[in-house]
Amino acid sequence: MKRIVILISGRGSNMEALLEAQVAGALPVTVAAVIANREDAAGLATARARGIAAQCVPHQDFGSREAFDAALAGVIDAFTPDLVVLAGFMRILTPVFVRRYEGRLMNIHPSLLPAFPGLHTHERAIAAGCKVHGATVHFVTPELDHGPIVIQSAVPVLPGDDADRLAARVLATEHVIYPRAVRWFAQGRLAVDNGIVRVDEADAQQFLLIDA
Ligand code: GRF
User: Fold this and answer.
1) Ligand 1 pocket check for 110: Cβ under 6 Å
2) Rounded CA Rg of the chain
3) Which of 48, 68, 86, 184 places its Cα 20 to 30 Å from the Cα of 128?
4) Substitution site in 171, 175, 178 for ligand 1 pocket (most atoms within 8 Å of beta carbon)
């Protein structure tokens, strides 16, 4: 069984979707730990209530990004994960950290990358007049919100949408695609060929499309 460590900064709904999939038998992994960079991350309590080792490495205790990332890597490595899963982890990671976990560090970003890397993706998609928007699970590379795309979800942008309504529509799809992506990794089905992710599974759907 592959071991995963999940990194969060807040609510942790993607973490919960992963834990639920695991409990339901749909995600063959051991969740070794949940780690947050803030003690007030609501997801820490959720993880603890489910009996998962949950720890905080407070970023403000460190004098530099490098020092924080080194301490974080030390805590992660103690759990010997095969895959590190970023689930709403709101810290920019140093290239040294990213390279350490190359090929075994995944992120979910709330846009159809390469559109809208960075923050406020839902506001920006509405302001740009986008008719579809979505989320992307990708392997992490040193460039922010970049890297080989494992799976994407797309939802319509509807008249009258504000950022919150659109975010909620996208988030519901995140909870479907992230467990699917992690399952593929856990089953050894993912291969990255020249930056393109392929899935070794019959009828694998690397997309989720939601109709209006
Ligand atoms: C999600 O929208 C995720 O795509 C983004 O941050 C948000 C985290 O939400 N990276 P949650 O903490 O998983 O509920």
Assistant:
1) yes
2) 17
3) 86
4) 171
**Domain range enclosing 53:** 1-101
77 in the same domain as 31: yes
Residues 16 and 69 in one domain: yes
CATH code: domain of residue 57:
3.40.50.170
142 and 87, same structural domain? no
Residue 212: pLDDT band by 50, 70, 90 thresholds? confident
Separation of CA 174 and ligand 1 centre (Å):
8
- List, in sequence order, every beta strand (DSSP E) within the chain: 2-8, 29-36, 54-56, 83-86, 105-109, 132-139, 149-156, 190-193, 196-199, 207-209
Catalytic residue among 109, 122, 133, 175, which? 109
Residues 8 and 81 in one domain: yes
User: Is the CB of residue 145 below 6 angstroms from any atom belonging to ligand 1?
Assistant: no
**pLDDT tens across 110-122, in order?**
999 999 999 999 9
